[in-house]
Amino acid sequence: MFVTGEEMGLLGSDYFAHFPTVPLNSIVANVNIDGAPGEHYPMKDVVALGAEHSTLGNEVVVAGKVLGYDLVADPMPEENSFIRSDQYSFVLEGVPAVSVEDGVHSTDPTIDGLEVQKKWLLTRYHTPLDNMDQPMDFRSMAKAAVLNFLIGYQVAQRDQPPTWNKGDFFGTVFGPRHAGTVGEE
Question: Following DSSP, what letter does each residue of 101-147 receive, concatenated?
């Protein structure tokens, strides 16, 4: 599904999470695609926001290996990105979630991925320059789209839905709100 109003308080995803078109307990995971991973350069690795909180992290690792990606930690944890994008509306309702973002290393050793990201955030993000005319690596974006597909496909093939990792903050605080559904241990 495509939602809008993220920057205005996660309006679209929050609405859907509260008024889903299917029973909430049938939504077993959220694989958020916010932006276009791989947009800036050919990625050697990816950051999977939220992967450490649930068994979705395993799905990211497996899918990443299929495509030759390494999984790296969030290089800017001070930004609290996991709770600032549409996946968080689902987390608040007890649904494990992950959002794959650009990694920090490029397959091109002349590109400093973290530097490219920081420059983009300062000069283009949420400005009139953040449009289809900016430089984009469509091949890298397509590969990242396949990664997100594989994550979702793997979840769909499992007999059991993803679960929160034992003792995880989000699973402990939000998972039990939906007795008998995703998130309970």
Answer: EE-SBBSSTT-BHHHHHHHHHHHTTTSTTSSTTS---HHHHHHHHHH
